[in-house]
């Protein structure tokens, strides 16, 4: 049975209207990352951090999965093999498109967690610094997001999946954020074929056996159709 591991990044959700770090006029440009995307920033000003993620959550709630998300869900549903999505994105567009095997290595925007007891739950559209944890009642609610300086989720499982993969595909990633930037090398060393689908070549494009460039909503459905007709 063929095992496919697909890494997705901000480029797959950009066409749904969700901004990236690199957007010139996006939400990220209005904030200092040290203030809203680090544990230290949250400790200094939790209200600011919650305001930022409330805005991102609203943006995500109003967005819809695009053709690339739907194509990957179709691949999982119809492919005669295993398909796993490892995403750097914190949005829920893969799930809303119908994908079920999705690992969010950087956390989930629509989830909350407790800094005191590590309980996780579905986040309301608006979260507040003094909202009590539903499990322990401590006022330590935070977004269920992996901030700079924190360790990504699922890493042991991801490395195992990469080393068991027959094909590794990277979709819409910049190729300069570790540990995800090393996934292609690890998969290739274990014998997997590798493919990059991106708007333009990433910094690590030379590590892939094959690359294709173009908007995710065009090249991902085309590739999925090829896989399903092979």
UniProtKB/TrEMBL annotation:
Signal peptide: none
Places the protein is found: Cytoplasm
Residues given in the record as substrate binding sites: 53, 56
InterPro entries: DHS-like_NAD/FAD-binding_dom, NAD-dep_sirtuin_deacylases, Sirtuin, Sirtuin_cat_small_dom_sf, Sirtuin_class_III, Ssirtuin_cat_dom
Listed GO MF terms: histone deacetylase activity, NAD-dependent; NAD+ binding; protein-malonyllysine demalonylase activity; protein-succinyllysine desuccinylase activity; zinc ion binding
SUPFAM superfamilies reported in the protein's UniProt record: DHS-like NAD/FAD-binding domain
Record domain Deacetylase sirtuin-type: where: 1-230
The protein's required cofactors: Zn(2+)
Reaction catalysis annotation: N(6)-acetyl-L-lysyl-[protein] + NAD(+) + H2O = 2''-O-acetyl-ADP-D-ribose + nicotinamide + L-lysyl-[protein]; N(6)-succinyl-L-lysyl-[protein] + NAD(+) + H2O = 2''-O-succinyl-ADP-D-ribose + nicotinamide + L-lysyl-[protein]
Binding annotation for NAD(+): 9-28, 88-91, 172-174, 198-200, 216
Catalytic activity, EC: 2.3.1.286
Source superkingdom: Bacteria
Binding site for Zn(2+): 114, 117, 133, 136
Cofactor note: Binds 1 zinc ion per subunit.
Keywords: Cytoplasm, Hydrolase, Metal-binding, NAD, Transferase, Zinc
Any one GO cellular component localisation term in the record: cytoplasm
Keyword field contains Metal-binding: yes
Positions annotated as active site in the UniProt record: 106 (proton acceptor)
Domain notes: 2 residues (Tyr-53 and Arg-56) present in a large hydrophobic pocket are probably involved in substrate specificity. They are important for desuccinylation activity, but dispensable for deacetylation activity.
Family the UniProt entry places it in: Belongs to the sirtuin family. Class III subfamily.
Function: NAD-dependent lysine deacetylase and desuccinylase that specifically removes acetyl and succinyl groups on target proteins. Modulates the activities of several proteins which are inactive in their acylated form.
Protein name, per record: NAD-dependent protein deacylase
